[in-house]
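ok so i was messing around last nite and threw this chain in just to see what happens. nothing serious, just curious
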Amino acid sequence: KWMDYNTVAIENKDPEYKGIPQMLANAFIAIEDKRFATHYGVDWKRTFGALINEFVPIYSSRQGGSTITQQLIKNLTGENGRTVSRKFFEILNALNLEQNYSKKTIMEFYLNTAYLGNGCYGVKTAAEYYFGKDVKDLNAAECATISSITQAPGALDPIANFDANHERQQYA
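result:
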């Protein structure tokens, strides 16, 4: 499926990027997509590494190859099956998204659509749920906590699984 970005209800997401602390965006980049600033929607090194790891285990665990842009595509479409065709269209849509939107806009959309456990979609909801505060008032440790949830929202829930979340924070 090819995405028509004019029909995607991105504009209904909140808050605006200017209300999101830069250290929160940086935490997500550090933990999810270190080369976010330099790739064009797809991190080919990670993609090929994840593909090879499917057949020849070169990493101790299954490594994700998705960039923040690709994760945004999944958030917007709701498609997350493990099929070659889904991944192919995700890559095409990520490349297209990066041609049509700035990195800042992509990050804003991502931060406002990421599932962060306990019914929280987006960092604003997560900040309120986990810390009882507005996203703009988060400190560095709280930013690391929230960014650590995305990989496995149930297993990395900072309330139910504090130790697992805290261990993942070391990457943020």
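not much to say yet. Residues 1-15 have pLDDT under 50 and may be disordered.
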